[in-house]
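stage 2 :: seqdesign
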């Protein structure tokens, strides 16, 4: 039992009753009980909870008043984020006692200390700050189609606190991505509460971040689509390509402007980082939200809302160990054991090597290895299909070891598979993040 909270509640109740009684009796005369100077008659001030006459005090400067005011927490409001939280996990070991945003706590220093005597005369404990509080939009605001703050194509956005839900993985030749999510569910669900974060690996280093870090991110909001950049359009009727058949607003990096081009109807919201995220705290990692495969597969009506969210499907069976045969991209299909028609694709983009085997890696002209495909600690070995299996020209494993073996088999069952939801190559896919996300 937390006696501090009980004491705080009782003290707050007593204070409310006291103020109500004081207000009902009008300004206090000399000798009357008081809580603050404003409760005393003109010419009196509240000293030791009693209205007393006193000589007028010279007005204090802001610097003097700030020196008299009680400090809020142990984080200096004029320090840089790096100096203020040298070890963010230690700085917020108890989120209930932490001040999540010291600048927000004293948004107007002149108001905070306009009456320095009142700022130190009230012995009542101050309410504990909410570690989940944030400034600016949330992911829910940015992504929910009903939101008045929905993200605009190409706009710069700042999200003050999200949870890093996956390690970074290769997205393209120069790009990596990871996934973030809101710390708390909204109305019992994380729909519209997750998003992919994309960055140029040579320009932004995120080595200090890890799964579970609470971070602030800033970047450009886009809805990624496959675009025909040569096809200008005004309406959908201008787009005749069977796939790129929608006239959409897209961000053109060459001109740094939003233009209309023919593109795929399906979009993938993402934030393209403009700076390295900063760690702002620590806290529990959201548990996966349980869904059905039919909720999030290609035909799922809620799949778009769950993009970027950490999810879980239970009691599933492998219905196809390689849906891309004769090519092999390390993916497989699962469906509920009681309905094998409701299939969902599982992707090896982040880490499924315990089941799908060593990750594929690109081997360019002259068998030049591309390590960007690999997990930390592994390197790309351009050793040929006889070692990596299937049609792979190279795979990732540590020097001096053997590559992990592909154990995919139709009919395999899993008690649960967890991962973040993504959309690529015309499929919604669940991406397990670590080997334990797949439980047989």
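stage 2 :: out
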């Amino acid at each position: 039992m937390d006696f501090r909270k009980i004491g705080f509640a009782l003290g707050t109740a007593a204070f409310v009753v006291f103020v109500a009684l004081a207000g009902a009796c009008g300004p206090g005369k000399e000798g009357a009980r008081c809580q603050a100077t404003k409760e005393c008659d003109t010419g009196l001030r509240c000293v030791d909870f009693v209205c007393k006459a006193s000589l007028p005090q010279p007005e204090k400067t802001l610097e003097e008043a700030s020196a008299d005011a009680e400090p809020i927490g142990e984080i200096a409001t004029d320090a840089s984020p790096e100096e203020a939280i040298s070890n963010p996990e230690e700085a917020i070991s108890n989120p209930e006692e932490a001040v999540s945003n010291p600048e927000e706590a004293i948004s107007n220093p002149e108001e905070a200390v306009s009456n320095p005597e009142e700022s130190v005369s009230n012995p009542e404990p101050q309410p504990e700050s909410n570690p989940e509080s944030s400034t600016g939009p949330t992911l829910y605001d940015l992504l929910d189609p009903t939101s008045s703050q929905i993200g605009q194509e190409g706009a710069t956005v700042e999200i003050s606190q999200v949870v890093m839900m996956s390690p970074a993985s290769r997205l393209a030749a120069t790009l990596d991505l990871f996934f973030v999510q809101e710390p708390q569910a909204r109305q019992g669900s994380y729909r519209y509460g997750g998003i992919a974060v994309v960055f140029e690996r040579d320009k932004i280093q995120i080595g200090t971040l890890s799964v579970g870090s609470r971070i602030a991110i800033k970047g450009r909001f886009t809805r990624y689509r496959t675009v025909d950049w040569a096809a200008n359009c005004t309406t959908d009727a201008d787009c005749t390509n069977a796939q790129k058949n929608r006239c959409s607003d897209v961000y053109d990096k060459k001109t740094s402007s939003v233009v209309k081009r023919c593109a795929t109807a399906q979009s993938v919201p993402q934030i393209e980082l403009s700076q390295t995220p900063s760690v702002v705290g620590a806290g529990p990692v959201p548990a996966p939200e349980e869904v059905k495969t039919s909720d999030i597969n290609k035909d799922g009506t809620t799949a778009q809302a769950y993009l970027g969210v950490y999810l879980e499907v239970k009691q599933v069976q492998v219905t196809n160990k390689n849906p891309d045969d004769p090519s092999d991209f390390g993916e497989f299909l699962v469906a509920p054991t009681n309905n094998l028609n409701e299939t969902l694709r599982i992707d090896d983009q982040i880490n499924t090597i315990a089941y799908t085997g060593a990750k594929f890696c690109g081997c360019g002209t002259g068998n030049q290895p591309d390590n960007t495909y690999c997990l930390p600690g592994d390197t790309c070995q351009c050793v040929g299909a006889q070692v990596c299996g299937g049609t792979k020209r190279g795979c990732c494993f540590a020097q001096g070891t053997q590559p992990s073996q592909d154990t995919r088999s139709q009919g395999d069952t899993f008690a649960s598979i967890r991962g973040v939801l993504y959309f690529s190559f015309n499929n919604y896919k669940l991406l397990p993040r670590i080997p334990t996300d797949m439980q047989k």
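stage 3 :: structure notes
- The chain has three domains: 3-121, 139-225+266-286, 293-439.
- The radius of gyration is 29 Å.
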